[in-house]
Amino acid sequence: MKKLILPLLFVAAACQNKPQEPQVLTAPALEQKAESEKPQIVLASDIDPVCMMSVKEEYADTAMVDGKIYAFCGASCKEDFLKNPSEYLKDK
After folding, report:
1. What is the pTM of this model?
2. Which residues pair with 64 in a beta bridge?
């Protein structure tokens, strides 16, 4: 009987000492900056010059030609554009 009491006391004591929830800490460097603090890139157009897709909200890549920044929906459009930019900019 004594052999059973000691383990039961240990289990009972362990159950009373519940582990505390981990504290979540945030580093100031990881906090998101407000939209007004983010650097603003001025694009030559809100339209991908290759596929004519809107890139106003989000774009995958950019390229600068003649001091203007053009945004692209993906790498393949950027590659096509850089092969012959004048072909895509002739009407602009």
Report:
1. 0.56
2. 69
